[in-house]
Amino acid sequence: MADIKTVATRVGFGETLVELGAERDDFIVMDADLAAATQTGKFKKAYPERFYNCGIAEQNMVSIAAGIAATGKKVVVSSFAMFAAGRAFEQVRNSVGYPHLNVIIGATHAGISVGEDGATHQCNEDIALMRTIPGMTIINPADDTEARLAVRAAFECDGPVYMRFGRLAVPVVFDETYDFKIGKGVELREGNDVTIIATGLMVKEALEAYDLLKAEGINARIINMATIKPIDRDIIIKAAKETGAIVTAEEHSVIGGLGSAVSEVVCETVPVPVVKLGVYDVYGHSGPAVKLLDEFGLRAVNIVEKAKAAIALKK
Amino acid sequence: MEATFKRQLEEIACKVRIGIIEGVHAAKAGHPGGSLSIAEILTYLYFKEMNIDPSNPKDEKRDRFVLSKGHAAPALYATLALRGFFPVDELITLRQIGSRLQGHPDMKNIPGVDMSTGSLGQGISTAVGMALSSKHFGDNYNVYTILGDGEIEEGQVWEAAMFAANKKLSNLTAFIDLNNLQIDGTIDEVNSAKPIDKKFEAFGWHVITIGGHDYDAIEAALAEAKTVDKPVAIIANTTKGKGVSYMENAVNWHGAAPNDELYAVAMEELTAALAAFN
Q1: For residue B205, which of A157, A232, B139, B232 sits 20 to 30 Å off, Cα-Cα?
Q2: Do A74 and A208 reside in the same domain of the chain?
Q3: How far does chain A reach from its first CA to its final CA, in angstroms?
Q4: Using the beta-carbon criterion (under 8 Å), do A64 and B125 form an inter-chain contact?
Q5: Does B128 contact chain A (CB < 8 Å)?
């Protein structure tokens, strides 16, 4: 494990913007005084004349982006998930979502793994909020490789895209052969006893859970669901039919996130048990991110427990 | 302003008012008061000021307009229809199922609408975004917006104002429709943003105060706006409900439709005013 490279997904976000800046000049990047943290500061340094700092005014920033997009141009706005999805929710909904404008929202510092800043900054609700907006695409990359591919894909997307990035350095799971497509889940491990559908930093945990379950004679199917919306219905239905039980794993509230999205599909098509692992309707608190992930049960061992619970629920 | 042309504009504004009343009456809902107060401003913008072409409503280099006070949609729709963006007959479909004339402006479906608005405070920010885009990409068009005097109680308006001045968006002009009334009462009773001129000045804008039903004043203000290196706020003193006697300065006509009887009264007044032009 020691030699696995770890890097925060926000880094790939910032660096890919810089790459895209060299390839095309038809877009603007905006931030709300968090450019160093969100990593748009890298773009600012490379292309200062194409970067606009809106100051600490996320609602204004999102609506400004809508105006830019309404003139037919591309625009990326960035802030912490709490402020991009939370504070500016109604601007995202009405200024960006309703007119279905090409605004890319790069929301960093999502989830409990923000760590020391504590509950006010640990956004475990952003996927739920964004999922309710018609026409919104939501991508939650699992690692650096996927983050970079996802940013490029978002530039080709029609309509608004909410991209969720983390603060914490997380292991790089995918190599350069990894193929990312918006709206497509990826089966990472084959298995027919239970399916574990994970997103974001929980994908790495799910892969570890696969090994732990294997050691106990349980063959789990592992799916990476980077795109939460539009959700890959086909891969979910296939998993429900073939494995008969599903566990979802996300660094987000169990209300309204990946688990809810998967449950909605399963309930209406192939009703099988869906056991959700996530943040159970509580606020986080300050502490080192890795300790918080342990404390809030967002680890491979927790996925293993849920997998066994899901299997036990099979008829 | 040349007298014949001014008379033409006055006649158009009268037709805009008829379109507002017909639409709101047919819908049995809508916002007549704050629509009637901006008829002259919209008429001047769409029939004189703005570089637009109804036959090419998506022209990338066109001037943009954002109705930040989106509830005055009936006025925008009547102006766009009279300017030739869609048939005037369509105005009576306002707010009906199947109509593209939504209760608040919808840029996806209504020709000539540059931005979807309705949630107060957001429109000015989108106009700022358009003005920024115009300058950034060298397209050099102008952007206009109209805000309500109640709307500017929204904090986002001042976020937008701060940014526009800091970025020297001289291609942005914002009218503030100062009709002194909002839904719950006078703006003084509710939560006054006055002094509005001092606030915009303090935020770095060039401020011009005019009578909002006076075409000479509107023309002079827009001419002055082109000479300054700042965003411009034109504070337009207007009469809410202008042109319909019982709606003038009456707070209860902010968001209510006239019944058949009062509709007849309004139409009688407006058609008489229109007849005076012939």
Answers
A1: B139
A2: no
A3: 38
A4: yes
A5: yes
Phi-psi region of A35 (alpha: psi -120 to 50; beta: other; left: phi over 0): alpha
Distance from CA of B263 to the nearest CA of A (A): 33
**Paired tokens of B19:** 């379109």
Read off the tokens for A271.
């009703």
Distances B109 to B29, B86, B112, B201 between C-alpha atoms, Å: 21, 11, 9, 37
pLDDT of residue A1 exceeding 60: no
pLDDT tens track for B39-84: 999 999 999 999 999 999 999 999 999 999 999 999 999 999 999 9
Q: Chain B: nearest CA to A205, how far in angstroms?
A: 41
ipTM of the complex model:
0.97
A129 and A12 in a single domain? The answer is: yes
Q: Is B127 helix (H, G, I), strand (E, B) or coil?
A: helix
**What is the band of A2 on the pLDDT scale with cuts at 50, 70, 90?**
low
pLDDT score of B173: 98
CATH of the domain at A124: 3.40.50.970
- SS3 helix, strand, coil % of chain B, rounded to 5? 50, 10, 40
pLDDT tens by residue, A157-186: 999 999 999 999 999 999 999 999 999 999
Annotated catalytic residue within A15, A19, A23, A58 = A58
Q: How many structural domains comprise chain A?
A: 2
**Which among A55, A62, A98 has CB closest to B116?**
A98
Q: Which residue of B has its CA nearest to A87?
A: B156
- What does the pLDDT look like over A66-95, one tens digit per residue? 999 999 999 999 999 999 999 999 999 999
Report the b/e string of A241-253 with b at 16+ CB within 10 A. eebbbbbbbbbbb
Q: What residue numbers bound the domain in which A145 lies?
A: 6-171
Neighbour order of strands in the sheet with A220-224: A186-189, A220-224, A194-198, A246-253, A274-279
Residues of A in contact with B60 (CB under 8 A): 71-72
The verdict on whether A15 is a catalytic residue reads no
A4 pLDDT band (50/70/90 cuts)? confident
Average pLDDT, chain A: 97
Reported pTM? 0.97
Catalogue all structural domains in chain B, each as residue range(s) with its CATH number: 3-275 (3.40.50.970)
Do A157 and A190 share a domain, yes or no?
Answer: no
Listed by number, the residues of chain A in 39-68 with a beta carbon closer than 8 Å to a beta carbon of chain B are 50, 52, 54-55, 57, 59-60, 62-68
Which residue of B lies nearest to A93 if distances are taken between CA atoms? Answer: B119
